[in-house]
Amino acid sequence: MLTLKMPRLSARKILVYLLCIGSFFFLVINVHVQRNGPISLGLPVGFSFKQYDILFNTISDIKPDEKDNNSDNSLHIPLRKLELSQVNTENTEIPSVQDRPWYMNDGEIRPKNCELDPVSGERQATIFPEEKSDDRLIDQLMYIPPEGFIAENQDDPDTPLKKILFWNGAASWGIRPGRGVFLKEKCPVSSCVIATQRKEAATADLVVFKDHFTMPGIDRNLDQLWMIFMLESPLHTQVFKHPTVFNWTATYRSDSTVVAPYERWQYYNENVKTKVQEVNYAANKTKKVAWFVSNCGAKNGRLDYARNLSNFIDVDIYGSCGKKQCPRSSEECTKMLDTDYKFYLAFENSNCKNYITEKFYVNGLKHDVLPIVMGARKEDYEASSPYKSFIHVDDFAGPADLAEYLKKLDNDDALYNSYFAWKGTGELINTKFFCRMCAMLHDPKERSEKNKSYKDINEWWRGRGTCINGSWKKYHAALEKKKTKEMTNT
């Protein structure tokens, strides 16, 4: 029998053969990728070949004597310490309480001094309306003036304080004169003091007028700021006889100087807007629609809409506008929203830009009930509330169309529960109005002349399109039709 002897291969030759085979497969894979796109290698979602290459090279760079004693993590990262979060393009983890900003419940992350632009030398934070199109509320909460523009030790008794005079007194604000509110709120910028005596007007940095304004008979220094604070809609506030005197505004409007929303939603992580719920929010609920209302004369027609809706689905109206009664102070009233009803009419008394009140936030989002909204534009609700947390009346042709959809939700628990997937992904934050106001008073950046004051507060507050009586959808459709007609005629 003929026996063939195989040549003996050295370890070095075996390594050379393996490298050749590896190089061949690497070439084939590269050709395939260029022609057909990347091959799935079971890498995490968001893990690109570029990241894989970086990871491979990083591991290759680790020298034997550096695996445990690495001093430069940016260049040599031990494999066992390399986490996917370092190469994944999207972080989907909800931060722990201590890793949340200071204004959230038990949050601990405090702001630092604002950075200066290396070219212009001005602060980089966007805190005024002309600098950013949204409400800038988070920017303001995390704002501390750049180093050198605020005292390092704000608790030093010699630290100069910005004086804020509340022209109508402080009682309606629930605060007292002095620095107390800024210290109690743990404001990052606390070097301000509240005054309530009108005789101090001459030395005030900011004078705040609340809800109503009558021209005061005082001498106003050139650097003094005047601010009007309003929470009601333009339909329930005055037309100002002196429209050019205000520098700042504080209202629910997102383009106010210091935005003062009824509530403000913020996610723990902007990449996580839904989560799996272990609760069936439809369970044991036998009633359809509830509404608590006392003002029966709202100009936006909300009462007529609700009564029309009741022709197609059960609507229980509590208060002076309906047949059912339940004291506002009774916890049993609001408890019904969690246990009995599937839907709640969060109808405002005015259809105005950004006008969203506690009717939506408190009676709606803070309970296990699905709010049906009327008031602000749909995009306003989307900008200030959790993802898919409400139903807007403008999405339907009318009450009959809306009722059909509510019946569909009533018969489909999975679809109904999809409107509650946002729960646990964020919270309604404390907007720290006094803290933001104080921080902005210390801002060193000079605003342009056109932005130093409102040229016509009435035009800004109640100009055309700010408030309407009917549907926003129909209103904008009419504007587009008119615009198209005008362009055709020209």
Tally of strands: 14
Percent of residues in β-strands: 5-15%
Let me know the largest β-sheet.
5 strands, parallel
Q: Helical proportion?
A: 25-40%
User: What is the structural class?
Assistant: alpha/beta
The helix/strand series, from N terminus to C terminus, equals HHHEHEEEEEEHEHEEHEHEHHEHHEH
Indicate the CATH topology of the domain at 267-428: Rossmann fold
Tally of individual helices: 13
Identify low-pLDDT runs.
1-7, 28-89
Largest beta sheet: strand ordering: 2-1-3-4-5
* End-to-end C-alpha gap: 104 Å
CATH H-level name of the domain at 267-428... which superfamily? Glycosyl transferase family 10, C-terminal domain
Inertia-based shape: globular
- Using only C-alpha atoms, the radius of gyration works out to 30 Å
- Reading off the top of the CATH hierarchy, the class of the domain at 267-428 is best stated as Alpha Beta
Overall pLDDT score: 85
Looking at the overall shape, the CATH architecture of the domain at 267-428 is: 3-Layer(aba) Sandwich
> Oligomer, anyone?
single chain
Walk me through the structure.
This protein is of the alpha/beta class and 490 residues long. Among the domains are: 129-261 and 438-455, no CATH class; 267-428, Glycosyl transferase family 10, C-terminal domain (Rossmann fold, 3-Layer(aba) Sandwich). Helix content is 27%, strand content 11%. It contains 13 helices and 14 strands. It has helices at 11-36, 49-61, 137-141, 180-184, 302-309, 331-339, 358-365, 378-384, 399-410, 413-417, 433-441, 457-462, 472-489; strands spanning 162-166, 192-195, 206-210, 225-229, 248-250, 265-267, 287-292, 315-318, 341-347, 351-352, 370-374, 391-392, 426-428, 467-468. The strands form 4 sheets. The protein has a 5-stranded parallel sheet with strand order 2-1-3-4-5. Strands 8-7-9-11-12 form a 5-stranded parallel sheet, sandwiched between helices. Strand 7, helix 5 and strand 8 (315-318) form a beta-alpha-beta unit. The longest helix is centred in the first third of the chain and has 26 residues, at 11-36. It is globular.
